[in-house]
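Running co-folding for iron/sulfur cluster.
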Amino acid sequence: MPAPVLCAICGAVRAALRRPKTGQALCRACFVAAFEAEVHGTIVAARLFRAGETVAIGASGGKDSTVLAHVLRLLNQRHGYGLRLLLLSVDEGIAGYRDDSLDAVRRNRGRLGLPLHVVSYQELYGWSMDRIARHVGPRNNCTFCGVFRRQALDRGAALLGADKIATGHNADDVAETVLMNFLRGDVGRLRRCAEILTGGEGALPRCKPLKHAYEKEIVLYAYFQGLDYFSTECVYAPNAYRGHARALLKDLEATRPSAVADLVHSGERLAVREDVRMPTQGTCRQCGYLSSQPLCKACVLLEGLNRGLPRLAIGKPGRLQKALLDGEKPETSLREGEDSRPASQGSKILDF
Ligand code: SF4
């Protein structure tokens, strides 16, 4: 009988897994310790936090944000970061997906002992994602959802007085985003997407403490720690462009296990030619949110929905943006019985 493989770190216990990131055979305890030490190393090396800061953890109920909340709370205590941690969730209004994942966040709130605040699309924009999907059709839902979520997190964090937002983006997410932006030729986003800390210039800083953690290792860590998370995919996800980048990345990883780390590294090292014009940040004329255009993307998308012209709002600045800037009256193409204006858009959003 072959001799059992012992843990490459402690050498005392039989190995329980081979690390996807390094190929090392490790026991459960050494893997958990290595994972936590690496996240701590990432936080320290990038100086992600300062003592006394209030950090809103974007909590979706999925594996990444559940592991992030667990590890950040643990490291905050273990290493005395001096952070005030909060959970901040966005309810997009996706039946059978977000309602169930928010239940997982609520269960974790009790387990972690952290305060939880939930902001919803319905409350902020007057539209749920399910209703948006009924108007927009099966494609482009993630365009609306991504833009609205970004603002919703910022608005929620501002309401809570947070100094920073921490998100659960992992190495696979960053690698996929590098691929997507490269395939789309989106130079502006390509430059920023691999950064571990973004924001500044008036925007609330956002950081990714799990930036170097492989998705497979996050799943293993959650399993070994017995964490409670929600793992069903969003009902609109199969139509997302990201899915193609993910499939491509999985293929690359199957032949070259370091493909994830390589792409993250490439994103960090990419230099944009000096003569490429980058967008300059200003503020949206309508809601005051940061924007490189006279109107922010959320206001344009929302106006497209409210005018019954959602497709016109997608893509590069065009007819709808021009009409809005020219102050044209909204068209009344909504169906009978539907709100023509969301309850809280306008005055409430302008207040932030
Ligand atoms: Fe929103 Fe798309 Fe993610 Fe679903 S898959 S939560 S629609 S961004």
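Result summary
The chain is about 45% helix and 10% strand.
The CA atoms of residues 103 and 241 lie 28 Å apart.
Job closed.
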